[in-house]
Each structure stands twice: as structure tokens, then as C-alpha cells.
Amino acid sequence: SSVVSARLSAGTLATVVNTFRTSPSSEIEIFGSEGRLSICLYRFDGLRLYTCSEYPGSLTTRIKGLSRTMIDLAAALPAMARGGGFGNTFCQAWNHFIDAIASGERPECSFTDGRQAVLASLAAIQSFQTGQPVAVAQDNR
Length: 141
What we know:
By secondary structure, the protein is of the alpha+beta class. It has helices at 59-81, 84-103, 111-130, and strands spanning 2-7, 13-19, 25-32, 35-40, 47-51. The chain has a five-stranded antiparallel beta sheet, with no helix packed on it.
């Protein structure tokens, strides 16, 4: 299990929660001056934007969320029957990678993107070990 809090280059705060020890969770929240973006990677309706004036538990917000879920549910049922969006994402990512190899085109995610993700993970580990904030090293290659 891990929780990583980060300040992005423009000052925006982000929190990432991952665990497979309790109930599986892979969530990202980005906090900005205009509101909060919440992303849950296991739910078809896991993308939520809350403005500064919106409270997640308020009746208005819940009704808005419920109506959006009902509208999206019909399109989501086939994907849910195949393991949901999280599993589908892995399949699409691998299919894209295989297609890129077969066609000779560059994949959407580059080696540099992967390397930067590893550098962010290493910074999070170093921060945990030292108890201090750690800047993510920039990939200058």
C-alpha cells in the first residue's frame, strides 16, 4: 500500500493512493485553485470533477453523480462484463504496443515516459526513507 503526495511543477497538489493489500485501490486526486479532479481506476464512473463550491456529500452533488452514473451505465455494462475498465486498459495498452511494433510507429508512451515514472517512484521511496520531500529528477536524455 502507498500514498504519495506531490506538488506538481505549477504548484498543483496531487495525491496517489495504491493498494492491493486491502480492498484494491488505484486512485489519483489533483487539487487545483479551481477545484479537485478525482480519478478512480477501477470504476467506469471514476472520473469526477468537483468545483470549489461543490461538496462531495451534498445532495446536489450526489444527485448529479447518480444521474451521470445512470446515463453512463448502459455503455459501461459490456466493459464491466469483461473485467471492467481497469483490465480493459491493460489490454488496450498491450495491443497498442504490439501494433506499434508491427507497424514500426512510435508508441504513445515512450521510454522517456516510463523512465520518468520510475524516477518519480524512486523519489517517493527516498522521501519515505528520509522523511523529507524529494524533487523528482528530470530526465535530460
